[in-house]
Amino acid sequence: MQRAIDLFYKCLELLLILLLGGMAIMVFLNVVLRYGFNSGINVSDELSRYFFVWLTFIGAVVAFREHSHVGVETLVMLFGRTGRIICMILSNIIIIAVSGIFFWGTWKQAPINATMDAPVTQLSMIWVYGIGFFTGAGVVIIALERLLRLLTGRVTEEEIAAFAGENMSANHLAERA
């Protein structure tokens, strides 16, 4: 099961690379066409904005899985093991609540977005803003799994240390930057 999950996240990382590459190519091509030939591709303006939205929200799920979001490690480092676990539990409960609200907001907005079309591509706006379903559900699932492992005592010392920012080697910090 873990291999399937890891493969899923590798596919997401590949998708992020493709989105970023596609966005860079479209923007670069449009700049060259506008300044060099006084023309441009209207679709690329719109699609590059949508790629950026998808890149941001898919990347948020990947970053959350890898514990790469901003944390308040300086405060958490002051606590012992029990205090850190309590902070981890509270943090995951807050994350679940906020991500649940985000998912619910996307759900409530979906009928409106489904009836609106993008100006140039005529793409339904649910394809753009519907990424909130993936992000909200993805973060809730990850946080629920973490919360379950915390409450059942299956959290490792490495995870607790990572939450407090203690096991950050120079290489790991360079990867997060």
What is the total tally of β strands?
0
How would you sum up the major sheet? none
User: What is the count of structural domains?
Assistant: 2
Radius of gyration computed on alpha carbons: 20 Å
Order of helices and strands: HHHHHHHH
Unreliable segments of 5+ consecutive residues:
none
- Kindly report how far apart the N and C termini lie: 30 Å
Q: Which percent range describes the beta-strand content?
A: under 5%
Percentage of helical residues?
over 70%
Helix-strand category: mainly alpha
Taken from the alpha-carbon principal axes, the silhouette is elongated
Residue-averaged pLDDT: 89
Helix segment count? 8
What does this entry look like structurally?
This protein has 8 helices and no strands. The chain has helices at 2-37, 42-65, 73-76, 81-115, 126-129, 131-151, 157-163, 170-176. The mean pLDDT is 89. It is 78% helix and 0% strand. By secondary structure, the protein is mostly helical. It folds into 2 domains: 1-66; 71-177, no CATH class.
